[in-house]
Design goal:
Lyase, Ornithine Decarboxylase, Chain A, domain 1, disordered C terminus, alpha/beta, 23% strand, 3 domains, 28% helix, 8-stranded parallel β-barrel
Length: 490
C-alpha cells in the first residue's frame, strides 16, 4: 500500500513537492527537537552551536536497507567515516549491522561501540603492517588494495593463518559521476586494482590461484553524484570477474562479494530519493545473479543511513547588509559544513529559519546569505536564499547533516567541536541524550600544543625560556591568567 501523501514541502528552489509519511515524521520530530534544545538551554548564548541526530530516523533507515535486500545473505556494514561518533556506532551495532573502518581510529571507535571482529571490515589504501597484522589475527575482514599490500599479507600469513576473510579490491573503471572526488571507479582512481589496465585481470586471477586463502572481491564505484546505473555497471563487472576466477580455478574459491555502498542522498528535500529499494531494483535489472545467494554479500553504506537524520542548529549572532544583500552571521560554517562551504555547487544544504524559541519563524521571506564564523570571505553555508527575515537570537538549521558534517570537525580558527545530542519524540515528549560533549576552549588550547609551549624556543636556547621543562608553564603563578589555563599543565 502506498503511504498517504500530501503537498506540503518546498525544495531549494522553492518548488512544492509531495511528501511521504516518513518525510513528515522526520520534519515534525526535527522541529520538536529544535524547540526542545532551545528550551533546555542546550542551544543558546552559552552554547550557540549544536548537532542533532534523529534516533528513530536512523533505525528507520537501517530497516529500509534490510528490507530492500530481503532474503539475500548479506552483512550490512556502516561506513564509520560517515559518522564515527561512538554512541551512533553503538546504536547501529544494536540493529545488527557491522562496521567498515578505514583507519586505526575508526577501528578503535568501532570496537569501543561493541562491534565484534567478525562484523568488521578493514578498508584503506594505506594500511600499515601493524594494522594488517592486527586485523588478520583477530578475524577482521581485510580488503587488500594493491599487489604491494598483498605481498605484506603474504609475509604476515607466513607466521600463521588469517582468522577472517581476505579479499582484493578491484576498480572496474566504469567512469565518474557528477562529483569527481566522490567517484572511485574512474580510470585513474587511487583505489583498488584497475581492471582495464593491460594484464590486470590476468594478474588478479593469478593472485587467487596462488593464494587459496583469498576468498572475496571488493568494489566500490562511488557515492554522492553517482547514478545507480553506474554503480550497478561496476558491480556487474565485479560479479563477472568473480565468476571468471572461480571458473578458471575450477572451484568456488571466491565465496563473498563486498559491493560497497554509494546510494546518493537527496539534499533537495525530506524524501529519501533514491531509496534502498531503488538501489536493489537497479541491481536486479543489471546483475540479478548477484542476489541469488551464490555469494555472501557485504555492503558499506554510510551517508545514506545518517545524512537525513542529522541537523546542525546555530544561533544567529548578528545580521547586516552589504551591497543590498542581507547577511545572517551564525556559528555554523566551514568547521562543521566543510564540503558545503568549499564546494557549494556539489554540496548544497537546505536551510530552516526558526525564532528565538526554536519554532519555525513566521515572517516575510527575503533573500539572504547565511554566513559562518570563520575568517575568510567564502565561509557561507547558503547564498541568496529566500527565507523568513532573520534577526539576532534566531536559530538557523542546516538539514541533512548527519553524515560528514558535525561528526567530521575542521578545526579552522581553532573553533571548538560542538555538542551533539540524539533525540526521540515519544507521545509528544522529546527525549534527549548526549552523544558528544562540546569541546572546551581549554581543550582546544591543550590540543594545540600548550603542554609543549617552550619546546621550540628551547631548541634555540635551552635556558632562554626560564624553564627547561616541557610542561607548557613558565614558572609564573598564572592561575588568574586566561592565556595560561590551569588545566593545561601535564
Amino acid at each position: 500500500m502506498r503511504p498517504e501523501r500530501v503537498v506540503n514541502a518546498r525544495d531549494l528552489r522553492g518548488v512544492v513537492h509531495v511528501t511521504s509519511a516518513v518525510a513528515r515524521r522526520r520534519r515534525s520530530a526535527r522541529e520538536a527537537a529544535l524547540a526542545r534544545v532551545v528550551d533546555a538551554g542546550l542551544l543558546g548564548p552559552e552554547a550557540p552551536l549544536v548537532g542533532l541526530l534523529d534516533v528513530d530516523g536512523i533505525r528507520d533507515s537501517v530497516d529500509a536497507l534490510t528490507a530492500a535486500f530481503g532474503d539475500t545473505p548479506v552483512l550490512h556494514t556502516f561506513a564509520a567515516k560517515a559518522c564515527g561518533l561512538v554512541p551512533v556506532l553503538r546504536l547501529l551495532a544494536e540493529t545488527g549491522m557491522g562496521c567498515e573502518v578505514a583507519s586505526p581510529g575508526e577501528l578503535e571507535q568501532a570496537l569501543a561501540a561493541g562491534f565484534t571482529p567478525e562484523r568488521l571490515v578493514l578498508d584503506s589504501p594505506a594500511k600499515t603492517v601493524e594494522e594488517l597484522r592486527y586485523a588478520l589475527a583477530h578475524g577482521i575482514a581485510v580488503n587488500v588494495d594493491n599487489f604491494q599490500e598483498l605481498a605484506r599479507v603474504d609475509a604476515i600469513l607466513a607466521e600463521g593463518p588469517a582468522a577472517g576473510p581476505i579479499g582484493i579490491r578491484v576498480n572496474p573503471q566504469v567512469g565518474a559521476g557528477a562529483i569527481g572526488a566522490m567517484s572511485t571507479a574512474t580510470t585513474t582512481s587511487k583505489f583498488g586494482i584497475a581492471l582495464r589496465d593491460p594484464g590486470a585481470v590476468e594478474a588478479v586471477v593469478d593472485a587467487f590461484a596462488r593464494r587459496p586463502w583469498l576468498n572475496r572481491l571488493h568494489a566500490h564505484v562511488g557515492s554522492q553524484g553517482c547514478p545507480l546505473s553506474l554503480i550497478a555497471a561496476g558491480l556487474r563487472a565485479t560479479f563477472d570477474l568473480a565468476e571468471h576466477i572461480n571458473t578458471v580455478l575450477g572451484r568456488r574459491q571466491i565465496t563473498g562479494l563486498d559491493i560497497g555502498g554509494g546510494l546518493p542522498v537527496n539534499f533537495d528535500g525530506d524524501e529519501d530519493d533514491p531509496t534502498f529499494a531503488d538501489y536493489v531494483a537497479e541491481l536486479r535489472a543489471t546483475v540479478p545473479e548477484l542476489l541469488d545467494g551464490r555469494y555472501r554479500l557485504v555492503t558499506e553504506f554510510g551517508r545514506s543511513l545518517l545524512a537525513k537524520n542529522g541537523t546542525i542548529a546555530s544561533l544567529v549572532e548578528y545580521t547586516k547588509s552589504a551591497g543590498g544583500r542581507r547577511i545572517a552571521i551564525t556559528h555554523a560554517g566551514a568547521q562543521v559544513a566543510t564540503r558545503t562551504v568549499f564546494m557549494p555547487q556539489a554540496w548544497p544544504l537546505r536551510v530552516g529559519a526558526f525564532d528565538a524559541h526554536g519554532r519555525p519563524k513566521d515572517a516575510p521571506n527575503e533573500i539572504q546569505d547565511i554566513a559562518g564564523p570563520c575568517c575568510f570571505a567564502g565561509d557561507l553555508t547558503a547564498v541568496g536564499r529566500a527565507l523568513p527575515l532573520l534577526d539576532p537570537g534566531d536559530v538557523v538549521a542546516l538539514y541533512d547533516t548527519g553524515a560528514y558534517y558535525f561528526s567530521s570537525h575542521f578545526a579552522y580558527n581553532s573553533l571548538p567541536r560542538p555538542a551533539v545530542y540524539g533525540y526521540r519524540v515519544v507521545d509528544d515528549d522529546v527525549r534527549l541524550a548526549t552523544v558528544r560533549e562540546a569541546q572546551t576552549i581549554r581543550e582546544v588550547v591543550q590540543e594545540s600544543g600548550a603542554p609543549h609551549v617552550h619546546a621550540l624556543v628551547d631548541l634555540i636556547s635551552p635556558k632562554s625560556s626560564g624553564n627547561s621543562s616541557d610542561d607548557g608553564r613558565d614558572g609564573r603563578d598564572d592561575r588568574d591568567d586566561p592565556s595560561h589555563p590551569e588545566e593545561v599543565a601535564v
